[in-house]
Queue: 2 jobs
Job 1
Amino acid sequence: MSSILVLVEHRQGAVRDVTFEMLTAARKLGAGSVEAVLMAENCDVLAPSITPHANKVVCVSGPAFKEFSYEPYQKALVKLIGEKKPSAVLIANSAFGTDLGPSLAVALNAGLVSDAVAFTEADSGFSVSRGMYAGKLVADWAMPSEPAIIMVRQSNFKPEPASLGGAVEKWDAGDVASGAKTKFISLEEVPTTGIDIAKASIVVGIGRGIKEAKNMPLVQEFAQDIGAVLAASRPVVDAGWLPKEVQVGSSGKTIKPKLYIALGISGAFQHIAGMKGADTIIAVNKDPKAPIFSVAHYGIVDDLHKVVPALRTKIKEMKS
Ligand SMILES: Cc1cc2nc3c(=O)[nH]c(=O)nc-3n(C[C@H](O)[C@H](O)[C@H](O)COP(=O)(O)OP(=O)(O)OC[C@H]3O[C@@H](n4cnc5c(N)ncnc54)[C@H](O)[C@@H]3O)c2cc1C
């Protein structure tokens, strides 16, 4: 039976959602054991939020883990993985993970697949899927040797509740700080609007079909009517009509809302890579051959400037 180690990602005292996404994916694999590795200044603080989701929480405390810095994490993980000999190690494909994962794989002489969107156990090791050529195709990679280091795409798996009530195992990393060539100086957050499109259940995506900035209020009001957040294709972000943090796609965010309404979006593969996992997709496009219709569950072939006001009127009628 395989055993999986999942590296808990946390920032400023909060466990990041991707941790629960990875733990869910690991549990669904039917692994013999799923152990979460929590490295923090005082890991007792965060451990209770993880124990329901794993068979065990390996708690590694120390000042070296107060903020993320890849060297202490890597040193500790090399030692821990050497002791536990897991079949696979899951690390988020985040800024944090991309700093750590490759150097960890080199230190362990292990195989690594980044930006993984699916993984299953194979006859020997794991089969891991990831997009290639900016999402144009999905390649399955064989990872026959252990441990397989799998860097998991964020917002790709849906986190699910669990009640495993895993035990907490204290583990001493020893001296991991000395000799470090890098050090954490400060965390500077990019100013954001506070809107996280990856957390919204209804998202209205705006594409170049909106034509001009002066047409934005139409879609903003529509989104408000239906309790949605606005997202965008890249040209809309490049034009400065919406901030980069709401861009959907291969160089933006991957989202899995309950409902995604694409307005005037052609459906380039770079965009589809970020929203094809939505439960329901509705597309409005005046071109019946637009590729967005190949992933849409419902499609309206018409001018969005006619469709959106008509929808708003209908919704108002239904609400009253
Ligand atoms: C390396 C790389 C990374 C990229 N990353 C991303 C990414 O993360 N996200 C992303 O979105 N793109 C990304 N792109 C860009 C991508 O290739 C497309 O250019 C982009 O998605 C197109 O955006 P769009 O659908 O809004 O515009 P267009 O392709 O111009 O499509 C506009 C659509 O609106 C329709 N339309 C026009 N007027 C109306 C109307 N009045 N009513 C209804 N429909 C109308 C048209 O029929 C057309 O289908 C990337 C490209 C590269 C090279």
Job 2
Amino acid sequence: MSFQDIKGQVKAIDILKGYIAESRLAGAYLFCGAEGIGKKLAAKEVAKALNCSSSDFLLCEGCPSCLKIEKNQHPDLHIISAEESEIKIESIRQLQREIAFKPYEGKKKIFIIDDAHKMNKESQGALLKILEEPPKDSVIVLITDRPKLLFKTIISRCKTVKFLPLLRQELQEVLKKEHGLDKTQAHFLAYFSEGRLGRALRLKDTDIMREKNSLIDRFCIRAKPNIDDLAAMDKPEIRDCLNILASWYRDAYLLKAGLDHSEVINFDRKNELLSLVENSDFAELDEALNAITGSVLYLEKNINVKLMLHNLGAQLWRG
Ligand SMILES: [Zn+2]
């Protein structure tokens, strides 16, 4: 793993390389951007760059320090993540204790706070105190896809580096060339994961193609789908299923609006999509898509899921 392996983040990586080359890394960074696009990998590369024992980090082929960081075994690398969906004050207090020490064997200590928005208010308050006077031999990297949940005062004390999703075409190529996926699967994953390599890779080892096509068969092609099948699943599964159903109607809607055929998510079922487009008007497709995406949002709330799904079924298949 190296900076070159983080795909599609040329701009963010260039900024970081610039900071490292000029040794002007700030005390604290905020890496923001969608989940699964390489923020954490980049943070670990920064940790390596700051502690690498070869004369030029970019040419390092795996010095002991870089190898330890790669395996999360370096004593100066600290990764803080949520326990039970929250980063609690105790984790930040521990950071506060550790940051006061000199590095054990490296040149700089790195603290990576993953999903930093999961810090509760108490934790954010404690972190803010640390950021007011960060020790010179430490770098703190906050990683988040929801910077709005962080105190403004925290954000203003960090240098923000933005990470953007890959272009779908780029991701499709990466999935084909470097992960050996066939064209159909690479296309679906690149589009379905919206350019997020991490998400595409998580899905690649599941039976996603078969599952998504079975869902489309059962809920989009068949005349009378059985909603109870869906209602019997747990929430994360229902969310995945609804996202797949949404992709189907999004495709149809955009095809109707004149989207190029190669840009649809479910390209492998283009002909069935075209027939749906032929037989539906804009309003129907729009309504179906809104009903599904609305249900995904409701799913986050504490509601009667079964009732909601039956409602959705009634909206989608009342004909
Ligand atoms: Zn190295």
